[in-house]
Amino acid sequence: MSRPYEVMQSPPQVLAAPPPATATRHRTRRALGLAAAVLALAAVAALSLLLGARPLSLTEAWHGLTDPASGAYTVVHDMRLPRTVLGLLAGAALGLAGALAQALTRNPIAEPGLLGINAGASAAVVTCITFFGVQSLTGYVWFAFLGAGAVSCLVYLVGGGRGATPVRLALAGAAINAALFSYVSAAELLQTSALDRMRFWTVGSLADASMSTVVRVLPFIAAGTFLALRLARPLNALALGDDSATALGARPVATRVASMIAVTLLAGAATAACGPIAFVGLMVPHLVRSLTGPDLRWMLPYTIVLSPVVLLGSDILGRVVARPGEMLVGVVTAVVGGPVFLFFLLRRKVAAA
Amino acid sequence: MKTTVERRRVIRPRPAIALTVTALLTLAVAVYGLTSGDYPITPAGVVKTLVGLGDATDAYIVNELRLPRVAAALVVGAALGLSGALLQALVRNGLASPDVLGVTNGASVGALGTIVLIGGGSVAVAAGAAVGGIAIGVLLMLLSGRAQGNRLVLAGVAITAILSGVIGWLLTKAQLVDAARATLWLTGSLDGRGWDDVLPPAVALVLVLPVLVLYARPLAMLEMGDDSATALGVRVARTKALVMLSSVLLASFAAAAAGPVSFVALTAPHLARRASRATGPNLAASAVFGAALLVCADWAAQHLVPGRQLPVGAVTGLLGGGYLIWLLVMERRAGRL
């Protein structure tokens, strides 16, 4: 924790202590790092426009983007552009949800996928597709929020809230995941037409992205992101424990409730748009923490920029390895992210509790 | 100064009574399951048929149609309960079970890979499931050198998550017909099981029996910790490897017969412990409770939704998930987790 809170360094002699030069240098370095991350994001987004079943050259892609008469216009505008934009949005949402969940539970393995929040959203969506015959995203996005919200409350309560140990949270998540999985497959088996739609959706994919999907989830993700960024300071304070946080002027209960709302909005919207995608919310915050330290005011912006890099990167990987078909992005993140998690688990004393 | 230590085995009444009562109840439910269906047969008729005195129609319906399913439920349930009890004793964690640690998902990947990529019959699918489950078991054994107790559980959660990604991929690769078959298999179902489906878990039970007889006591001593067990003369590494292998074998072959029926392996040992109040791994009682759970769940799955048959895995998944959540709350209240 290099520069948590000015107020924290309360003894006067300490207040004067950090030489301003170091502080400025840290800040410059982090700002430069953020700029580099943005560049990486731009590069990945460009690659996402170029690569696919039919690779385009840079000039072709540019013409496809700007010139309606060009041959690549359809490919770029109808397929790759919505896909890329949705990948950016969903990636940022999932990463932020993970970072918030980790800060909220003070727990390194909190992640919407492992905790069953994505599964909650998908169970709700499956319910409304199977039993209520709702087909449109506008119809089921609200169900997704409902499911995500219900599961995040449940997992938070069962896991033990502030005192949650990694094992307890993981098991609460595993229990919820398994129960919801049984429910989803029972629902699918009762109605085979739903199975055909759902089996693609339940893996997590960007392949069916369209601009209308993007437009519909954008407000929710924007609201969630705004809320998350506002929560950086109070959550920083909460990391010191409730008493210190209250002394620093943060309101623990309000902060927790707001964080849960933000996680629900972000994870629910991302899941409604692309299906449950695991491990993005786990990997990226850990990576970012090793770059910036635990200060959420830096962590959250870095996460917003780097999560889409990981999600779009996985999507591109899925398009390239299985050409001419493609591997769904949810599969790639699980297969790539799982081992990263295992490595992290075996290297550090995560499960000491 | 040789003192004669009296080695009389005291049979305590409570575990023995609990075991007998549960076994009898299980049999009763099984017979009841044999009576119900589209063509009702009285319990007396079922018993008569079973001992070989019934008429030809009853004999066909009971012996060829209903008995294999009930027998599969009994054998698979016993295998799962035993597998869970072994694993929980080994990991020294009441929350471990083949489904939480990913063994069941490994079996699923094996079976699904066979259905989707190779497209074999039920024997091939069963073999695929066994191979997949055993592969994950070997991986866990390799990991258990570096991760023990809770950490092994977390590693299992991660493995489960990776494998569910692979399962999803296999499902999207499949034709719709295969996908429906795979989804049904994935939920865990006893529908239409014949005698050749009962065979794999029965063989696993027989294979594992010598390990149980020889290693039940060392396993009970392992619960005191590796060092104390070594001091008491237990060969820790060998015991652990054999017990792990047995548990994985049981879970994989159970999955081969019925698909990944979730949560029976987790729940049965807990119920067994509550009922028998005995110390130690409670192996026999866990097997009986596993069988009881699965027979009851299968009956419920057939009759819960009128006119529709749910797969038994959907019932155990919903009930077991709820139970695990309740258990977590209780463990937390007791300050154990």
From TrEMBL, chain A:
Coiled-coil spans in chain: none
Location in the cell: Cell membrane
Transmembrane segments: 31-53, 84-101, 113-134, 140-158, 170-190, 210-232, 253-279, 299-321, 328-346
InterPro entries, A to Z: ABC_BtuC-like (IPR037294), ABC_transptr_permease_BtuC (IPR000522)
Keyword Iron: no
GO cellular component terms, semicolon-separated: plasma membrane
Membrane topology: Multi-pass membrane protein
GO BP terms in the entry: siderophore-iron import into cell
First and last residue of the signal peptide: none
Keyword set includes DNA-binding: no
Keyword annotations from UniProtKB, A to Z: Cell membrane, Membrane, Transmembrane, Transmembrane helix, Transport
Protein family: Belongs to the binding-protein-dependent transport system permease family. FecCD subfamily.
Protein name listed in UniProt: Iron ABC transporter permease
Species name: Actinorhabdospora filicis
TrEMBL record, chain B:
The family this protein is said to belong to: Belongs to the binding-protein-dependent transport system permease family. FecCD subfamily.
Keywords (A to Z) from UniProt: Cell membrane, Membrane, Transmembrane, Transmembrane helix, Transport
GO MF entries: transmembrane transporter activity
Cross-referenced InterPro entries: ABC_BtuC-like, ABC_transptr_permease_BtuC
Transmembrane segments: 16-35, 70-91, 111-140, 152-171, 198-220, 241-263, 283-301, 310-329
Protein name: ABC transporter permease
Cellular component per GO, a single term: plasma membrane
Localization per Swiss-Prot or TrEMBL: Cell membrane
Any one GO biological process: siderophore-iron import into cell
SUPFAM superfamilies documented for this protein: ABC transporter involved in vitamin B12 uptake, BtuC
Gene3D superfamilies named in the record: ABC transporter involved in vitamin B12 uptake, BtuC (1.10.3470.10)
Membrane topology listed for this record: Multi-pass membrane protein
